[in-house]
What we know:
Layout: E1 12-18, E2 31-38, E3 44-52, H1 59-73, E4 78-81, H2 86-94, E5 98-101, H3 106-125, E6 135-138, E7 141-145, H4 146-152, H5 158-168, E8 173-178, H6 185-191, E9 194-202, E10 205-212
Helix pairs in contact: 5-6
Protein name: Nitrogenase iron-iron accessory protein AnfO
Pfam family, one: AnfO_nitrog
InterPro entries: Nase_Fe-Fe_AnfO
Amino acid sequence: MCPCEACEGNKTEVAVILGSEGTTGILSEPGTVRVYERGDDCSWQPIRETGFEMKGESLQEIRLKISGLMDFLGDCRIFVARAASGAVFFELQKAGFSIWEIEGRPAEFLDDVVEEEEAEEKAGKSTVFEIPAPLEISPNNYTISIKDVQGKIPGISSKKILQHFVRTGDFERLEVICDHVPPWIELDAVMSGLDCESEKTGPGEYLVVLTPKRAES
């Protein structure tokens, strides 16, 4: 059995839309919606799946398909796609889903997604803290240690610390020190016109570097 007490009795579910190659799919394109459950031993197992496609449907058919998807998802309230937009995205949002945009295979990100979700939940119940901004170490060059911030503000997620700053993209270089590469940061970097590189710098420590994409000559 897993020594992690957080998993015991906590049957967390995460839904993922998958393309034909087993990686995350685009919500507006045909795919398979698979629901994973984390068991008492902290392992993830697929527990149900269904095909899902929205193309070429009338408004009434779209509503019926979304209603069917909601029924299929049941109590699951976390949904992961490579890209999410359109009617399905807005209906999921209205229903209270936490929607993640991540590129990759479920085994690569499920633990990180749930860790971030649990951190968000804990932060919402804790005292309000001022979140430190990245430190400007030279003109337009910034650095921040997510590890240090989370050490000072227990339960705060990397998204709450950094996502707004990344999406603003008003920097020449941003160095992020963390204990794992945040599952959302690579896709957000691409959407913000940034290059994202990461490397393991030591036991339980990574360096993520974001820089503006350079025009190809």
